[in-house]
Design brief:
By secondary structure, this protein is of the alpha/beta class. 41% of the residues lie in helices and 22% in strands.
């Protein structure tokens, strides 16, 4: 049996009025009266004694009313619990990110997002690039922030931003005082590289190979933070995104020098499963992420001094 007729019956009894109960349920008074009549026919008993004004419940009607009232109350509680659970689930967002998206800027962004959407529950986790992709594919994360994103049968890519890459070195390095350099200035220089299995390493190696520049790989690491620490103790130079060294350059821990004969960029994107909807909170997170000026700095433009321009994207 549907609960709506039981609710109407309870409202008629509670309000002691067919007309008021009808208004509460958005139906006509005759419809409310018909609902009670149909219940009495189904049960084969009289629920209301209409010979009295106002009507009163029969003994059977009194017992039936108490049972219906409990059922309707439990159902209303169940509906509220399910709605609350849905609201909480819809407000949850799990984001997996590579380390080099800019830890300081992302922390500020998360605070801003929370202030704009205080009910949102966002969990941001930093992982190795391969693990970010796996987390999204396996449903452990709703969104992934990755470099050089690739679409697949499982994953869809939302464009985010392109980051300019620059030479990064110790402030006392011989190249640190240059306003700009050409790529061939790196020939023979100790170089702090990414590990060979990372896409960024392959792209930088290709850039150097195309331009016939041989560097001396002194150290290899799997993340930008460790590379920066190695450069801070003057173990070599590297090519890194501008946004990832902004704090160290401003603090005087590192120096950055733009390249003038090549334009090197690292694309960042947002990935999610094709078969999963982002939901309202996911869409709001993506839109705010794309529009955030701190996380999307204007690219560094340098004049091209060579006819042999190479435009390379780095991850």
């Amino acid at each position: 049996m549907q609960l709506r007729p039981l609710k109407i019956f309870c409202d008629v009894v509670r309000r002691r009025s067919f007309s008021r109960a009808a208004d509460d349920n958005g139906i006509s008074q005759s419809s409310a009266s018909q609902v009670i009549h149909q219940l009495e026919e189904q049960l084969g008993i009289q629920l209301l004694d209409r010979s009295k004004r106002p009507f009163v419940l029969t003994d059977e009607g009194e017992h039936y009313y108490e049972g219906c009232r409990r059922l309707v109350k439990e159902y209303d509680q169940l509906v509220e619990e399910v709605r609350t659970l849905h609201d909480e689930t819809a407000a949850r967002l799990r984001v997996a990110s590579i380390y080099s998206v800019g830890l300081a800027h992302m922390s500020a962004f998360m605070r801003s997002f929370s202030s704009v959407y205080p009910d949102a529950k966002v969990r941001l986790e930093y992982l190795h690039p391969a693990r970010v992709v796996e987390a999204v594919e396996d449903g452990e994360a709703d969104l992934g922030l990755v470099s050089y994103p690739e679409e697949s049968r499982q994953l869809q890519v939302i464009p985010w931003r392109n980051e300019s890459m620059v030479l990064v070195c110790h402030p006392t390095h011989s190249l640190a005082d240059e306003e700009s350099i050409t790529l061939d200035k790196l020939a023979g220089t100790p170089f702090v590289a990414f590990e060979s299995e990372l896409r960024v390493r392959a792209e930088i190696d290709r850039l150097l190979l195309v331009n016939k520049v041989n560097v001396n790989v002194a150290l290899e690491f799997d993340n930008i933070e460790t590379i920066k620490r190695a450069i801070e103790i003057n173990e070599g130079v590297s090519l890194l995104p501008v946004s990832t060294v902004a704090w160290e350059v401003e603090s005087g821990l590192l120096a950055q020098v733009p390249l003038v004969d090549v334009k090197v960029e690292r694309p960042l994107g947002i990935i999610h499963r094709r078969d999963a909807t982002l939901g309202t909170i996911g869409q709001q997170f993506v839109e705010m992420l794309q529009s955030d000026s701190q996380l999307n700095p204007a690219p560094v433009e340098a004049p091209v001094m060579s006819l042999r321009e190479t435009h390379t994207r780095i991850v």
